[in-house]
C-alpha cells in the first residue's frame, strides 16, 4: 500500500499542508474544540474563559487549545491530501521535488515565533 502512487501523492500533500494549516490555526486561534481537562469538559470551537468576578478561574481550570488546533489542521490536510491523491500523477510530479522539506521547516520557525509571547510573559 505504501508504494502506491496515490498514497505517495497523499503523503506528500498531507505533510506540508498540515504544517501550513497548523500555523494558520495557531495564528488565527482556530481550534476545532477546547478541552478543560481538570473539569472533564470539551467544548466546540475556541472557548475563552470570561469570568469577570474571579479572573483566577483561568488558572484553576486552564483551557487546552492544542488538541483543537491539531484537529483543525489535520482535517484540512486530510482534504488536501485526498484531493492530491485523486489527481493524475503527471499533474503532481513537479510539486514533489527536493525542496519540499522547506515548508515544515518554515512552519516550525513560524510556530516558535508565534509562541514567543507565552515565554516572555513569565520572564
> Structural class given helices, strands, pairing?
mainly alpha
Largest sheet: 2 strands, antiparallel
Cα Rg? 18 Å
Proportion of residues in β-strands: 5-15%
Gap between N and C termini, in Å? Answer: 50 Å
Order of helices and strands: HEEHHHH
- Shape, per Cα inertia axes: elongated
Widest sheet: strand ordering: 1-2
The residue fraction in helices comes out at: 55-70%
Query: What is the number of domains?
Result: 1
User: How many separate helices?
Assistant: 5
| Unreliable stretches covering 5 or more consecutive residues | none
Number of strands: 2
Compute the average pLDDT: 84
Properties at a glance:
single chain, 123 residues, mainly alpha, two-stranded antiparallel ribbon, 5 helices, 2 strands, 7% strand, membrane, transmembrane helix
What is the topology?
Layout: H1 5-28, E1 33-36, E2 41-44, H2 57-60, H3 66-86, H4 89-92, H5 102-121
Descriptive notes:
By secondary structure, the chain is mainly α. The protein has one domain. The protein is built from five helices and two strands. It has a two-stranded antiparallel sheet. Strand 1 and strand 2 form a beta hairpin. Helix 1 (5-28) packs antiparallel against helix 3 and helix 1 (5-28) runs parallel beside helix 5 (102-121). The longest helix has 24 residues, at 5-28. The protein is elongated and about 55 Å long. The termini are far apart. The model has no long low-confidence stretch (mean pLDDT 84).
